[in-house]
Amino acid sequence: MTKTLLDNIGNTPLVAATTLIKNKDIKLLLKLEGNNPGGSVKDRAAYNMIKSALDRGTITPETRLIEATSGNTGIALAMIAGLFKLNIELVMPENSTRERVQTMRAYGAKVTLTPSDSGIEGSRDYAEKKVKEEEYVSLNQFGNDDNWKAHYKTTGPEIWRDTDGQVTHFVSAMGTTGTIMGTSAFLKEKASEVRIVGVQPADNSSIPGIRKWPEAYLPAIFDPSRIDEIIEVSEEEAVTMTRRLAREEGIFAGMSSGGAVSAALKLADTLEKGVIVAIICDRGDRYLSSDLFV
């Protein structure tokens, strides 16, 4: 049976790291979310948020959508909004990589760039102002339950299936926190002893896709009770591991993936045995205009 592009969101490969782990009693499995049609894990949430809103009638083809994004969610929303013939404006900091901006525009979205010194928080403020003052609707990925439910319905079940229920630890970078919230909810239902590990940047570190939010901007979907441990990684650690992934494992990914794998290796150093699954959230070609791979 022929599948549409939307049918090919999810069911991404889960591959074993071959060089990074020295302890033979520990498996490190990497879930390659860059294999989604839009190139990142955010395809899952974007599709579920748009499809669910359309099904409920909270948005229609006449709705003017607006969303703040650091990149991957915006690309996914641009792609899926285009397929559903929806108008969408995406707001992101002006220091976002050129590849991300161009990709969103290629899918037909309007892109608005906000001052880089105000970060993604400034982009969120801009979008919220548009919703309050003009006839815009935000999907609000930071407070939308359809974000984390996408991972409850797909990412968690895939990991459980592809590890034959043997997963002992799940490691994910935290941005909107949708991936870790939804996957945790599913895995904890299957086996409460599975450890859920979130990844945050160390102080004074900037890692695209990983955030330590100020209290006022903490995602409403975040529930700290669903996380067993948080591991911090530095910008240098994330960059080094991203480069190692490409050179040693053949996995070409972005910096947040390097951060997640760096945290997974720190975790592995504390274990005698286990099956660790880490999310590789996107592809490295989104960062070629940056200095990540110089």
UniProtKB/TrEMBL annotation:
PROSITE patterns membership: CYS_SYNTHASE
SUPFAM superfamilies registered for this protein in UniProt: Tryptophan synthase beta subunit-like PLP-dependent enzymes
Positions with a binding annotation for pyridoxal 5'-phosphate: N72, G175, T176, T177, G178, T179, S256
Catalyzed reactions: O-acetyl-L-serine + hydrogen sulfide = L-cysteine + acetate
UniProt entry tagged with the keyword Transferase: yes
Keywords: Amino-acid biosynthesis, Cysteine biosynthesis, Pyridoxal phosphate, Transferase
E.C. code: 2.5.1.47
Gene Ontology MF term list: cysteine synthase activity
Protein name, per record: Cysteine synthase
Species: Sinomicrobium oceani
